[in-house]
Amino acid sequence: MPGTIRTSWCRPQGRRRRIGRSAAAIATLASSTAGAAEQSAPALHQMVLDAHRDLAQHEIAFLALAAGAVLFAIVTAIVLVRTRRRAARLLAFIRDETAALREEADRAKALLLSEPQVVIDWPAASNEPSIEGDPAALGLPGGHELLVLDRWLDPGKAAAMARAVKALRARGEPFSMALSTLAGHPIEAQGRAVGGHVVLRLKDAGGIKRELVELLERYENLAAEAVALRAVVETLPSPVWTRNAAGRLTFVNTAYARAVEAKSAAEAVDRRLELLDQAARESVAQARLAGRAYSARLRTAVGGAQRTFDVLDFVTEAGSAGIGVDATEVETMRSAITRLADAHRRTLDQLPTGVAMFDASHRLTFYNEAYRTLWNLDAAFLDQRPTDSAVIELLRMGRKLPEERDFRQWKSQLHEAYRTVEAKDHTWHLPDGRTLRVVTTPNPDGGVTYLFHDVSERLDLERRFEELIHIQGETLDKLAEGVAVFGSDGRLRLHNAAFEAMWRLSSRVLSDRPHIEKISALCQPLHGDAPAWRALREAVTAMESRETTRGRIERRDGRVIDCSTLPLPDGATLVTFHDVSDSVNVERALRERNEALEDADKIKVDFVHHVSYELRSPLTNIIGFVHLLGDPATGPLTGKQREYLEYITVSTNTLLALINNILDLATIDAGRMQLELTSVDIRETMMAAAEGVQDRTVSGGVTLDINAPSNIGSFVADKLRLRQILFNLLANALNFSPPGSTVTLHAERRPDAIVFSVTDTGPGIPEDMLEKVFDWFETHSLGSRYRGPGIGLSLVRSFVELHGGEVTIASAVGQGTTVTCTFPLAEAANLTAAE
User: Fold this and answer.
1) What's the whole-model pTM score?
2) Is the separation of the CB atoms in 705 and 816 below 8 Å?
3) What is the pLDDT of residues 738-749, one digit of tens each?
4) What is the largest CA-CA distance in the chain?
5) In terms of Cα–Cα distance, which of 121, 119, 116 is closest to 186?
């Protein structure tokens, strides 16, 4: 353990006992020597007597031996006596010395214990120290606990003392330390090497020494604090400085040096590099002279950029000290927060929800326009920052709050929001019929924010929605179409009775919300796994491709069902089934009839084409022979023959024109008609058409009036087809005009078209016949004496449409008919360009 000295201990009386043992050993040795001498003297005497008695018995040879023995015994006795005397004197001396040493030891111990102290002695080459003194007197633990230094010293001092003792025992380095135990008892520790021993003495530090220990401890604490504070100051990101009484820099930290672009703090002090400008330093100096601290927010240049610092400079005993906290980000954040708050307020003013904020003192700090409008409050009143209670009382007086039986309790419950940490939701039913949703939200810094949302319209919509859902359900049940709604999980959500009946499903099975696969399996006997049903299942269960599908299912029972799917916004799918069996049957009948009519029409057209070509050849021969017969070179004819020949000529010409018209219609219908576009003189073409019907005007007694401006000019068209158009229109008008009436052929030039119109005063055309007059072979006499083949107007419309124009007809029964043909000039230009 660091800072701990571990060793074994000897008894405190060890040295005294060793001295006593040495003296006792010397006394024992002396006593044993004297005793031996005393015991050996009678024996020698008896030995001499025995030798004398036995002289007669022994030879004279032994006389010398006996004399030697006697002499030895005498000498030995004399030596023993002297030795005993010397031992007695030595024993007395040892006893005196022992007593003196014991007295000296007692005096030394008394002196040692005369003051509170403990002496720890380590003999040379031994780890077993002896301890003298009373550790308890110093407030220290006894026994082995005394050498566990961190038991009675703080870790730092214990480690320092352990290092000092280690150096003392290893190299004999003395030390002296003033310490304070954990219990606050001041002691002095001294270590010395004396002879072959290492001695550590711990004694009470009293009087001046106590003060010295306390001062030393305070010094060490202050030094540690100073080191820690200097380390903190050095690591601060804010510039810190100190000045002497003359105002000169004495210390700056690293942040200060970095701010003034110095290489080190020492350089900044030596060069007197100032962070603040002259005006700021003068203000700081004035505050220092006045004995007060200086505090201000200043801007200064740091690293070529303007920074904002909160400068604090205060007077110290040695001068002054200051710190500059970089508030640039704070200032920036404050500006940003101010802008954000302004934007927040502007945003809240645009909200339809009323917002009112009250602080911890229940005073109004913010409201938006919706709040003022909601309660119809005066802005001047709200700007005075009224209390929450004042606003509620004002609203109560105006009967704008809910009618409550116990208003005080209701108000107290509302104001509980100031004491809670969770938002609460309230519903207010106002006397004017409105319903408000009120949310009270406690603010982090105290106070409450009220949110007022008018939910009257939403509640009304919800009620109407419920009614609509009910009506919708009733409507679905009355529909003839089968309707089913499947959720995103493929299970049935909604269906109507027609769906059950159409697919012969039971209500019990459908009430379990079966999956589309199960419904498909139940319906399979009817649909037979038709492709349309497979597409329906895929549309219901699809996760990504959600598209509308349509299909037709021809069931095995002969019924035809049209089905369609419609993806719904919530992920569900609407499926409808419509029984179209009757419609399909009617459609099939109509289609078959239409195909039959088309075939008949085709046969008719083919027949007309065939007959027209077949009639044209013999008719051409007849016309040729009629001309040959009318030629005087052939021979003379009687008057009757010539009259009959003229009838034949007129009839054949009429028949030829009819056949040519039919062939033109057939050519147009086949899409093989080609226009020969040229510049057509309008008046000239009108006159040519009039000449073609001149015989009819004479025979019918009808007047033909041609009306066209003299400067109408010309336009691009097929001259022959335009003449045919006007001829057919005039012929049709003359056929239905009574004698003595007038038929008008009119032409006009418009900016974008040439318009021809033919007007008669005949019987007119009934409204139900107007749509049929342009059909092939559609003809009605309408009281006329002449009934044509019914292809004139058909040919007119076909020729006009080939020119890009249109034909309109206006008629009233008994008032005549007007047929108008419009030829657009732009379309004529396009046809010319195409040519």
Assistant:
1) 0.32
2) no
3) 888 888 999 999
4) 248
5) 116
